Amino acid sequence: MPYINTKTNTVITKEKEIEIKKKFGKAIELIPGKSENWLMVSFEDHCSMYFKGKSDDSMAFVEVKLFGSADSGAYNKLTAAITKILKEELDINPDHIYVKYEEVSNWGWNGSNF
Amino acid sequence: MPYINTKTNTVITKEKEIEIKKKFGKAIELIPGKSENWLMVSFEDHCSMYFKGKSDDSMAFVEVKLFGSADSGAYNKLTAAITKILKEELDINPDHIYVKYEEVSNWGWNGSNF
Amino acid sequence: MPYINTKTNTVITKEKEIEIKKKFGKAIELIPGKSENWLMVSFEDHCSMYFKGKSDDSMAFVEVKLFGSADSGAYNKLTAAITKILKEELDINPDHIYVKYEEVSNWGWNGSNF
């Protein structure tokens, strides 16, 4: 039950989007017990965004939400992986990428909660 | 002070939107002390989304945010209600719907926090 | 590492957007240790939103996410400031503005977590 949303001020072509979701589907395995089998992914491109008061450079705000929790080492590895993917695919500089984690206690699927 | 955001890859017509927000306004009463009187609702349709690596089927990611907390039984009932509403109104299969809860400690309205 | 997202059903012109982000960059200093130097800001305007079942009036849902935590007094001051800014710049009534806080334990930047 992980979910990853990527918000960016740059444009994501359909080709890039497919490449990124494929790589995210692999990267999520860095969190023990998680896989693409339960992963939902969404993209918001061309957003109005500012970092340090400026909007000239490409930037991204990535939110990873997951049922339960994991240790900080796993999150750290996932941050490295997600950052690398966004640098490779969208050429966003790592120092313009935030990756934020949310551990969720109540999460529903198929009409009832886990 | 509850808030429900629905993110989906399908289209929500204005008629459907009004129907869904009306039903959400009723469903939120499943959480003790909450009602449409304090409910804010938002919709994001036609989003770029993938579940299990695929984007062919309709899907939704629903976020329920509320001030304070409730017991897991109430959340479970709300998940059932929201899932039913999205199946009825948008024909999204329940196994393609995530409903995620966030309990919030600091929440402001009208210029100051509760 | 703070982040502020503003979601509203009204329109935000580029001029207003720049004014708001400038004021947010100052307001964030109400949280000890935070400044525009680490602030990411995003805007979503013209959203489909309802408050108390109605969509006729302008409204906003503001999410403030920050690494670590602060005391509730600081959050309260920031709510007052953000509400004032949105009233001034977008003429949204304070009783149609929610400001919600999320304290984050795992937050990555530049490829690794803080």
UniProtKB/TrEMBL annotation, chains A, B, C:
Its main location: secreted. It is an enzyme of class 5 (isomerase). Its EC number is 5.3.2.1, 5.3.3.12. It is found in: Secreted. Keywords: Cytokine, Isomerase, Secreted. The keyword Secreted applies. This is L-dopachrome isomerase. It comes from Anaerocolumna sedimenticola.
